[in-house]
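Figure 2 data, in text form.
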Amino acid sequence: MTELHLWLRHETRTTERRTPIVPADARRLVESGVTLTVEESPQRVFPIEAYEEAGCRVAKAGSWVSAPPDAVVVGLKELPDAPAKLTHRHVFFGHAYKRQPGAAALLRRFLAGGGALLDLEYLVDEDGRRLAAFGYWAGYLGATLAVLHHRGSLKAPLRPTSKEELDAELASEKGELRALVIGALGRSGRGARVALGVAGVEPTCWDLAETRELDRPALLAHELMINTVLTTRPIPPFLTDQDLDEPGRRLRTLCDVTCDVGSPLNVLPIYDTTTDWTHPARRIRERPALDLIAIDNLPSLLPREASVDFSAALVPQLLEFEVGGPWGRCLDRFHEACHALEAEEAGEVVEEAEKAEEGESRDA
């Protein structure tokens, strides 16, 4: 492997306490010859001293903008709005390939600076399976919050906690509850099923077979629903506004773990704004009542467990960073998205020019 310099950045979102590389795995990278610079971060679940002890260099928060040109900047969530030109290779969840809000602006920043996005969502093997994901903990926490809210015991604002504490809350009260997990066979679905099991709930489990021909009356007959489906192609939505207006609807609590809001591939186009740690649940229908939970960084509520699992999966891929394979597929996907954006914008320019010419002809 050629010499690799990784730059672990501070996360600017105040509720983001996870890290993609934990200190124990940082030591493994350093001992393998990787230069690892870690930014100071007051909210990261692991202290900077633990990274220093692992042999990492330390830098100030946000200093990645002046990192050496060959450094690969590693993070999790969104970048700050500046700089306008992104010159480095960045590894994080960009959410930029399915027309999400802000996607085009982010890709333009990379195009302007000559950098590249290696999106962790598209770090996959030859069969398209994700190689590093937070899915299990997202599903576990989504189901946990949904059950607690449905019982009326969810406390806001949310705070980071331990799995033992959450399990104790889930197990403290038993009762009949008709719950549905969609995407039940995936990582997130498995996490949701485990949490529901702790709560004493035996959920209905749907996956590809059940969603190909969706039984909407059966869906609406459940009191609680957890969506964990992330699709890369258009499919009919699982719920519509018309469904929510059904007077016989029993569905009262909906947790959208996927949070693909704003994308044309969203399977739950019934809301346009996520919820957050301060206001985790929001009422989206009054009669009958329906409350939504849609938090896009759920695993940060269990930052230590989630980070340890994710880092264990990511670090082997980082150790093979220059080999191609999954990272090459990430780069190809980035270039495809950029070419599509450029072609679309070029088409818009042509269309505007044609309209202008038509206007001039009419004026003449």
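Caption note: Confidence is low (pLDDT under 50) at residues 359-364.
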